[in-house]
Automatic annotation (TrEMBL):
The modification 4-aspartylphosphate is found at residue 55. The keyword Cell membrane does not apply. This is Response regulator. Residues 8-117 form the Response regulatory domain. The lineage of its organism: Archaea, Methanobacteriati, Methanobacteriota, Stenosarchaea group, Halobacteria. It comes from Natronosalvus rutilus. CDD domains: REC_OmpR. The keyword Transmembrane helix does not apply. Pfam families: HalX (PF08663), Response_reg (PF00072).
Length: 206
């Protein structure tokens, strides 16, 4: 966030018309910056950047490489992949917070930024849990039940989610007296199975 307390959104997009459209949609609410390449994005990334909207397919340095560098450097920002590439099983190893398939409309892009800003206050366990769930959701939207069931990497992802859910449930259980906070977390995560004592998980129901 910058000095005037406006959240900072960095758009990383090599198509100028697309970048300008995103900027026009967001600039009334946020401090919007634009990078036309992966290397330019890394030059602009610092502690003031809150959200990165990252194109996956760019020349020279791909969005996946930029994302990996962001995570390796420990830069504390939320990242949404905004891309025309349909999600495949290779996204399981990516550390994004949301996956948005192009072309997003204005409402979708604004809602994505708003959600990511809300989630920025969550602790590390909740951030990691959400990232895992985002990868699962992207694949469930793209792949058939049979494709998911036959993929070992996807099975490992589901196991990680189950393991992380125990950690997150414990965290929420410790804060049970703070019903406003717990309720907000459930709403932000969009996953009702987070609540302690819930019945079957979504994976078991499927």
């Amino acid at each position: 966030m910058n000095s005037d307390n406006s959240p900072v959104v960095l758009i990383v997009e090599d198509e100028p018309d697309v970048a300008e459209t995103y900027k026009r949609w967001l600039r009334s609410e946020y401090d919007v910056r634009v990078a036309a390449s992966g290397s330019e994005a890394l030059d602009q990334l610092d502690g003031t950047v809150d959200v990165v909207l990252l194109d996956r397919m760019m020349p020279e340095m791909s969005g996946s490489e930029v994302l990996e560098e962001i995570r390796n450097q420990g830069i504390d920002c939320r990242v949404a992949m905004v891309t025309a590439v349909d999600p495949d099983f290779d996204i399981i190893e990516m550390g994004f917070d949301e996956y948005v398939t192009k072309p997003p409309d204005r409402d979708e892009l604004e809602a994505t930024v708003e959600r990511l800003l809300e989630r920025a206050s969550l602790d590390d366990a909740l951030q990691e849990y959400y990232s895992l769930v985002a990868r699962r959701s992207a694949l469930q939207a793209e792949k058939s039940t049979g494709e998911l069931a036959s993929n070992d990497e996807y099975d490992e992802l589901i196991n990680k989610i189950d393991t992380m859910r125990e950690t997150v449930d414990a965290s929420l259980g410790d804060m049970a007296s703070n019903t406003d906070f717990v309720g907000a977390v459930r709403e932000i995560m969009g996953d009702e199975e987070l609540s302690t004592g819930d019945t079957e998980t979504k994976e078991n129901q499927e």
